[in-house]
Amino acid sequence: MAGGYDLILAGGMVATPNGLERCDVGVAGGRIVAIGDLGSTSAAQRTDCTGLTVLPGVIDTQVHFREPGLDHKEDLATGSAGAAMGGVTAFFEMPNTNPNTLNEAALNDKLKRAKGRAWVDHAFFIGATDENADELTALELLPGCAGVKVFMGSSTGSLLVADDDHLEAVLRHGRRRVAIHAEDEPRLRERLALVKNGADPSMHPVWRDEETAIRATTRLLRLARRAGRRVHVLHVSTAQEMEILAQNKDLATVEVLVNHLTLTAPDCYQRLGTFAQMNPPVRDARHRDGLWQALRSGVVDCIGSDHAPHTREEKARPYPQSPSGMPGVQTLLPVMLDHMNAGRLSLQRLIDLTSAGPARIYNIAGKGRMALGYDADFSVVDLNAKRTITNDWMKTKCGWTPFDGMNVTGWPIATIVRGNIVMRDDELLGAPQGAPVRFQDTLQQEGQF
Fold this sequence. Notes:
single chain; alpha/beta; TIM Barrel; nine-stranded mixed beta sheet
């Protein structure tokens, strides 16, 4: 290659479009320019990947990094550091910060805050409200925007879009796929009396029962079909929803969380108390088994973390005054690699769920594949490494993980973003160089065609 390579990953098992192959990967200008036997070809930097597996960069499409306004829990620097430590090369961040991300100024503020501080690439969601539906067609096409996020339940203030008329209005403005938190707000209010005056944390999935999720997802699909709008249903937590979504794959894509695939009630509430509290809740083993069945049968399109950190002091409040959410961006890949080693899914399926799937769902430009011309984003892993996840390893400000003490097989060894090695052997390297993710839907507006 004329001009040489900036980086060569040498001697690893590479997840190519043709399957796992022992070969080299050449990088120049932040992109993949060669896959094959590069021999002793010179490069500015050469990394020995012998004994390691080189995956397309993992993309976590649902995180809450809390900046601005809630920086005591997390910020873009610490959250993205956790992403890099965990082998995640890009994140999509949610709009329920303070102020909410509802307009161009708020989006640009987040992009400005991320510049020079985010360790990995990133995009930010615009939140839909009852008031900004008419503006969403333009807002969703802004550079750095991951799309529109709707909260049908579990939110506060203007971010809540609870009734059918306003939800349909949101769905009729724009054309990109809309990300939806589907819990039925009227049912949540009806059932709040079950816990309002205090309860054991194990009541969380009783209050926010499966019908709360099923009802919202059913309403969403009816309205989305009427509006002719594609939707992405986030953190699906019930077996019944998966059966419904399987009949609507022409319209809806599906996310499941590591937490819902790994934890079960009542055990998690007995062990972790309010630290296991999240929305929608961790449910019993019947639902977890239903999620795995949906994953194996192809209903599930991607894995997310829903990284939603709170301080220990906040989580220790009596239920239900305790906030919902757990950290997860740093543990997504190690826990899923452990599931893979336990035989619950194949490596190819894991790649599909963490890189190719997000790229398909959100129409990401230049990411999600190990292919010439694509961004040189790599999650380099040791499939056989045996490690223990600990609170001390966490980079999140909150300093804890629900998986503390969990022994896993499979570990991220290096995180490479557009050819820059940002983590190697559990150590962050260099300075943050994350940049906004590009999307096929917005390239023309950005003048990149």
